[in-house]
Structures
1.
Amino acid sequence: MRVLVTGGTGYVGSTAVDILLTKGYSISILDDCSMGHSDNVPTGANFVQGSLLNPDDIARALVDCDAVMHFAGKSLVGESVEKPDLYHSVNVDGSRNLLDQMHVAGIKNLVFSSSAATYGEPRQVPIKEDAPTQPTNPYGATKLAIDQMITAESKARGIAAASLRYFNVAGALKSSRGWLAERHNPETHLIPNVLRSTPENPVKIFGTDWPTADGTCVRDYVHVVDLIDAHIKALLSLQLGVHEIYNLGSGDGYSVRQVVAAASAAIGYEIPTIDSPRRAGDPAVLIADISKAEEKLGWVPTHDIQAMVSDTLASFS
Ligand code: UFG
C-alpha cells in the first residue's frame, strides 16, 4: 500500500514516515517545508515539495497512492490568534483541495491529524469524543471545520476516514538516520523548553494559580511513537462511508510542575523555573478519555511521561 503523508517532513509526519517505511508501506510525501525540514525525507520516499494550496502539487503527490495521512497544517495556538486568515487558508482551504484531489484520483482512505483544541474549555474531564466542540482559538476552529468537512465528504462521496484528536504530543523516535524530534523555532512546547532551561534563562511556568492540585496547568501527554501506532491502527480500520473520531492521549494528566520533576529526574539536577503569569487561551486541565481508541482500535499507549522526557533529552545530543 502506498500512503501519501502530507506534512511528512515535520515532527509528527516524519515519525509516521519512518514507522510506515519500517512496516513495509510505500511512502509519498507532500510538504512545503515551511515548518518541516527537507533533511527529514528518507531515501526511498517519493517527495513532492509543494503546497496544499496548489492542486497540481497535490495531484502529483497522490499518484499511485491508496491512502492519505494528512498531517500538514499550521499548528500554533498563539500564532493562529494573530493570523486567523493564514490558518483558515492553509488548514481549511488546503484540506478542501486535498479532499477534491483525492476524489479526482479515486482515493478514499484518509487519516487526519485533528486536535483536542477542537473541544475548547472542557465542561468535563476526561474528555470524550462526543463532548461539546467550542474551540477557543482559530487553530482549534480550523481543525473542527476540517473534521466537519470530512464528515460531509464521507456522506457525499463515501470516503473512509478517521480524525485523530491529539492531546499533547511529546517524545521522539530514534530512526536509522538519527533522532526525529521537535525542531521548532521558536519552540513553544513545554517539554523541550523545560529541558533547555538554564539559570540565566529559566523556563517560565505559565500560571501558578490555576484550580489544580499544585496550581499549574494539567495536560495529557502522548508519546509520538504511540501516536503513530494509533494512526496505523486507524488506517487499517477504515470503513467506506464512515468518519470516526478518536481522542489520542495517555488518559493521564500531568501538571507543569510534575513535568518539570520528571525532566529533572531525567537530566539529573533540579531544572530552574520561574513562576510567570498565565498564558492567554490556556485551559486549566485537558485530559483525554481514550477508551474509544482502546476498544475500537485495540490501541494501548505504552510510553510514560518519563520515557517522553528521556527521549526528548536524548534527541538533543
Ligand atoms: N507551558 C509553560 N511554559 C512553557 C510552555 C508551556 O508553563 O514554556 C505550559 C502551558 O501553559 C500549558 C502546558 O505547559 O499549560 C503545555 O503547553 P504546550 O505549549 O506544550 O502545549 P499546549 O497544551 O498549549 O498545546 C498542545 C498543542 C496544541 C494542541 C493542544 C491540545 O500544541 O496544538 O496541545 O492539548 F491543541
2.
Amino acid sequence: MSVKEKKQILHRLEQLEKMPPLKSETSVVAMLEEKGISRRDFMKWAGSITAMLALSPAYSPLVAKAAELSDRLPIIWLNLAECTGCSESLTRTEFPSIDSLIFNYISLEYHETLMAASGWQAELSLHDAMKRYSGRYILMVEGGVPFGNEGRFLTIGPHAQTGKELAQQAIAKSAAVFAIGTCSSFGGVQAAYPNPTNTQPLSKVSNRSIINVPGCPPSERNIVGTLMYYLLFGNLPALDLFKRPTWAYGKRIHDLCERRGRFDAGEFVESFGDEGAKQGYCLYKVGCKGPYTFNNCSVSKFNSGVSWPIQAGHGCIGCSEPNFWDTMAPYEKPLADRSFHSVFGGLGADATADKIGLGILTATAIGIAAHATIMKIKDSKGE
Ligand code: FSX
Ligand code: SF4
Ligand code: F3S
C-alpha cells in the first residue's frame, strides 16, 4: 500500500474513533462471538472484504478496524418505489453471514420495513435522525423515485410526503448517498416501458454524487463492501460509467462465470432440463445475459454465499444493467437472435460491453458451430 493511502486510512480511522459509538452496549467482536463466530473468522472475513475491494492484503487489519468502528456512522435507509428485495437480500438469510451481522451492528437509525415504529412515530424518528445527525449520516435509498403526478404516485407517512421530497431532504443533509438496488440506481421495474408513474433513478433528484449499487437485488457483499470502503476511506471508490464501484462491477458475469469453459467449448444447454443442463453446460442459448452484464455475482453470491443465478441453473437476466427489463428481455432467449439495437445506443450495457458483446457473439457462433459439428460426428457414428 502506498504511504499516502495508509496515512489517509489511519487518519480516517482516527477520526471515526473520536466519534462517540452510537451503540455502546457491545463491540463487533463480542457481538459476533455471541453468534458463535470467532475473532479468527472475523479476521478471515476482513481479509475477504479486503480482497474483494481489490486492496492489498496488508489492508486487512485496517478493514477489521473499520468494521469495529462501523457503529460510529449513523445510517438512514429509505424505501421508495421497490419490492424490498434489497433489504431482504441483506437481512433474510437463514444463517446470517458476517456481512448481515455487521449490518445489524451498524447504527441503523431509520429503516421503515425493519423498524418497529409506524405512522407518526416513524415519521418523527426519521426527521429526528436527519436533524440529529445532519451532515454525518450515510443515506441508503432503495427504490426508484416516481416523478409523475407531481410525485404523488408514492407518498409516505401521515403527512403524505412524496418519495421525491423525502429523498431530496434526506440527500441534502447526508454525508454520503448510496443508491441500493437497480430501482434506486436506474429506475428498475417500475420505470420499465411504459413507465406509467414516470419513475426515475435517485440521481435525478439532486446534483449530489451518488454511488450506485445495482442488482435486483444486489448481493449483501456488494452492499456491505460499499459501506466498508466508505468507512475506510471516507470518500467515493473508483466508479464506472454508470457510477457503480469498479471493484464490484468492473468485470462481466461472463468473465467470472464457472460455466465459461463450457461456452468456449461450445457446450450449450438447448432447453431447460436437458442433458446439457444436468451437465452444467453454458446457458447462453437459453438466454443468459452474462456477456452484457457487469457484476461479480459468482464471487459474492447470495444468501450467505450459498448460490447465484447461474449456479442455480438459470441464465443471468442482466439485473445490474440500466433498463434491463426493457433491453434484456425476453430472458430465456439469446439477444443474438434479435437485432442488437437494444444494447447499442447506450440503452443497455455500456459501450465496452457492446464491443466485447460483438466479439463474444462471433465466438458464440463459432461455439455453436463447433457444438453442431460434434453432434454431427456423434450422429454419423450412430451414438
Ligand atoms: Fe426489489 Fe430493491 Fe429489485 Fe428494486 O431491489 S429486488 S425491485 S432492485 O429496489 O427491492
Ligand atoms: Fe456463463 Fe452465461 Fe457466459 Fe454461459 S453465457 S459462460 S452461462 S455467463
Ligand atoms: Fe443479476 Fe445476473 Fe447477477 S441476473 S443477480 S447480475 S447473475
